[in-house]
């Protein structure tokens, strides 16, 4: 049974307050004892904090009311399909477009381009992360439909990370590690996780606690590999152009 809208609103407001209040208190203490910013700067920061809090509240409310139920329903519909290849293809598409719209991924791509003075393009980083997540969601769908143990994917995946890490440039290693973190943002942790729960629930003989969970770990792993692979390609291309 769906939770009443008013309860969802109040619960979301409490969550936002708990998240923002420590930051506000931390800033107030620093302003009082260390910073001493002028009133104009304090007003700007306060305005930005209110806007960010309002945006976070609206986003989380939309997630609770729309994203989670929609992901669950869509997953149950896809899980009822007999064609595994179609489920994998849809997972591939949803993984890509969901990550393409992930705000944290775009922020990372912008910061990488800025920090590298334009030598590492934001589009390259963004596409590498999106492709990695798309592949991880497709693999996650296969894992659910074929009841593949999570360790059979995660352990070889991190072993591959350690191997590629020794071959990659330090710059791309740093970007890749952060890419794994930003890829598991609010979009992945809401829509894609709910999608996996729906698929595992529709399978009937799949325990959602065993097969529905674990997708986020794959989403965190795949961009690390894909970004470092891009780094290897860029390194090989650059060395090939040298006289």
What does this structure look like?
The chain is mostly helical and 243 residues long. The chain has 10 helices and no strands. It folds into 2 domains: 1-69; 80-241, no CATH class. The N and C termini lie far apart (68 Å). The mean pLDDT is 82.
Brief descriptors of the model:
243 residues; mainly alpha; flat
Offer a quick outline of the entry:
With 243 residues, the chain is mainly alpha-helical. Helices cover 85% and strands 0% of the residues. It is built from ten helices and no strands.
Tally of individual helices: 10
The number of strands is: 0
Structural class: mainly alpha
Radius of gyration, in Å, reads 21 Å
Q: In sequence order, what are the helices and strands, one letter per element?
A: HHHHHHHHHH
Reported for the largest beta sheet, the result is: none
Distance between the termini: 68 Å
Helix content: over 70%
Question: Could you say how many structural domains there are in total?
Answer: 2
Global shape: flat
Which segments are poorly predicted (pLDDT under 50) over 5 or more consecutive residues?
Answer: none
Strand content is: under 5%
pLDDT averaged over residues: 82
Give a topology summary.
Layout: H1 5-35, H2 39-79, H3 84-100, H4 103-115, H5 122-146, H6 151-167, H7 170-183, H8 186-202, H9 208-212, H10 215-241
Helix pairs in contact: 1-2, 2-8, 3-5, 3-8, 4-5, 4-7, 5-8, 5-10, 6-10, 7-10
């Amino acid at each position: 049974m769906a939770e009443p809208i008013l309860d969802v609103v109040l619960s979301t407001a409490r969550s936002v307050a708990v998240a923002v209040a420590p930051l506000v208190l931390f800033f107030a203490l620093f302003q009082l004892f260390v910073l001493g910013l002028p009133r104009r700067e304090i007003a700007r920061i306060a305005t930005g904090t209110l806007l960010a809090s309002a945006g976070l509240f609206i986003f989380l409310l939309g997630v609770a009311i729309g994203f989670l139920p929609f992901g669950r329903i869509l997953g149950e519909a896809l899980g009822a399909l007999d064609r595994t290849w179609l489920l994998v293809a849809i997972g591939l598409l949803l993984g890509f477009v969901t990550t393409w719209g992930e705000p944290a991924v775009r922020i990372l791509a912008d910061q990488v381009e800025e920090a590298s003075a334009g030598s590492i393009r934001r589009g390259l980083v963004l596409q590498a992360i999106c492709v990695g997540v798309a592949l991880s969601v497709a693999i996650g769908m296969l894992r659910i439909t074929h009841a593949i143990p999570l360790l059979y994917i995660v352990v070889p995946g991190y072993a591959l990370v350690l191997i590629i890490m020794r071959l990659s440039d330090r710059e791309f290693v740093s970007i890749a590690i952060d890419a794994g973190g930003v890829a598991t943002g609010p979009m992945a942790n809401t829509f894609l996780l709910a999608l996996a729960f729906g698929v595992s629930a529709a399978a009937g003989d799949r325990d959602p606690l065993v097969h529905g969970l674990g997708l986020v770990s794959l989403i965190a792993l795949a961009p690390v590999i894909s970004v470092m692979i891009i780094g290897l390609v860029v390194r090989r291309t650059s060395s090939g152009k040298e006289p």
